[in-house]
Amino acid sequence: MLTGVSEEAPAPQRRWPRRVLIGSCVFLAVCLLGGAGLYVYVKYRFNQIPKKACPDCAAADGAGQPMTVLLVGSDTRTDISPSEAKSFCERRDCSDQAGPNHSDTIMLLHIDPRQRRATVLSVPRDLYVPIAGTNRRDRINTAFSASIGTLIQTVKQGLGIDVNHYAIVDFVGFRGIVNAIGGINVYFPAPAQDAFSGLKVKQPGCVHLDGNTALSYVRSRHYQYFEAGRWRSDPYSDLSRIQRQQDFIRRVLKKALAVRNPVTANQLLGSAVKDLQIDTKFSEGDMLRLGRRFRSLSPDAVDMLTLPADPVQIGGAAVLKLHEPAADETLKRFLQEVPAPRPGPPSSILPNSVRIRVLNGSGVSGEATSVAKQLQEAGFGVAGTGDADSFRYITPVIRFGTGQQHKAAVLQSAVVGGAELREDPTLRGLDMVLITGSGLRGIRLTPQAPAAPAAGPTTTTLPGTAPQATPGAPANRGAPPQPQC
Q1: How wide is the angle at C-alpha 44 spanned by C-alphas 68 and 278, nearest 5°?
Q2: Which helix (H) or strand (E) holds 171?
Q3: CA-angle at 189, arms to 183 and 195, nearest 5°
Q4: For residue 16, how far is the Cα from the chain centroid?
Q5: Residue 465, helix vs strand vs coil
Q6: Alpha carbons 345 and 410: distance in angstroms, whole number
Q7: What does the pLDDT look like over 214-250, one tens digit per residue?
Q8: Could you tell me the sign of the dihedral formed by the alpha carbons of 298, 176, 19, 27, in that order?
Q9: Please, what is the Cα angle at 26 between 20 and 30, to 5 degrees?
Q10: What is the C-alpha to C-alpha distance for residues 274 and 310, in angstroms, rounded to an integer?
Q11: Rounded distance, CA 236 to CA 197, Å?
Q12: For 386-430, what is each residue's pLDDT tens digit?
């Protein structure tokens, strides 16, 4: 997939300070505009969106056929005031942006009306691929610097995906959407900070984020969290950020799609479309079909995937290369060439479709950090880390949300030393929580094929791994339900 192009060191990278989540804004704009009930109103809002020709877009087969949309977040600041630019500058780089735009967030949305499925694929911005129209490889986000057409062709050549339409938006639209719906609540399992993006969460728990603070959260690439008495840095910068972004997208979609007040809906749509750009082939009918599809789906039912990739050093630069064969399996899942993972057996579930929060339940310094890193190396998605309610856990505990028992079995098969499964109907925003314990002996890089969960009690253990009593310590009872947002 990455052959046939000469190896060169990546081009020198200017550090663009506007690294923000835009995918959710584009995603939401498409869903809302398509879901609006009045045709005249849809046409009015649709006509407000700037459009450009896309000769590199593949022709769609027509109504009722699969469609793939490239969603791009641009780091441009050309349309904001100097005061706004200053308010979003990073601590070490407050210069105005000049020169070519870079893509901060790259997502692909695939809809197949016949299968009644929607899948979203996040592409790491540092993925090292052949850049279309050149004889070199580089980070995929640099393709957007040349043109949207170059990025579309790079996606086609590097990933084998035909793009039918594209949508681009800048970070101002994202901030406006979050403010229009009254902000978003996000659960932080531990205090968190990022001196570069401005993120500062002093206490764990449910935290309300407005447009500005949400921007600091989803921009964060130098994420730190407080665990076992000290601040620790997230070892998987962009890959971890993708997991946080996907969780945030689900939260935004849930709240926005529940809006019924016409004044709020009008304000929300206004924010969604004013900073959006699409291709001229993207018709009102396409918008309506997409919107109606998402109106009929729960945001939790949208299959959100991330391309598995491994960090490598090439020419002195830190980049990511596809992790095979998991990457090919993920691409097939995205294009819906394989059955949906829900409610299929555990053997059909890809680790990178499982969203996990890791909590330190042993008190061993840095254990949540270490386990999170191992899980990501095994292909799982880690959406957060922190401390459990107690440091006296022995057997690790997996708390999983309603209907996620098959995913929990996949995670359980990866835990060396065994783990208890406990259903937690209060869990929202992710699939499960892994609480480490003193009996944890690591994470398998390749999870063993798990058996389907048996009917009956939802609490199970792997053979030979029943909880052990410790003098003076209570038996494992699992963490009490945490406040969810």
Answers
A1: 30
A2: helix 171-180
A3: 70
A4: 21
A5: coil
A6: 10
A7: 888 987 888 998 888 889 888 777 777 887 887 887 7
A8: positive
A9: 165
A10: 37
A11: 16
A12: 899 899 999 999 999 888 888 999 999 999 988 999 998 888 767
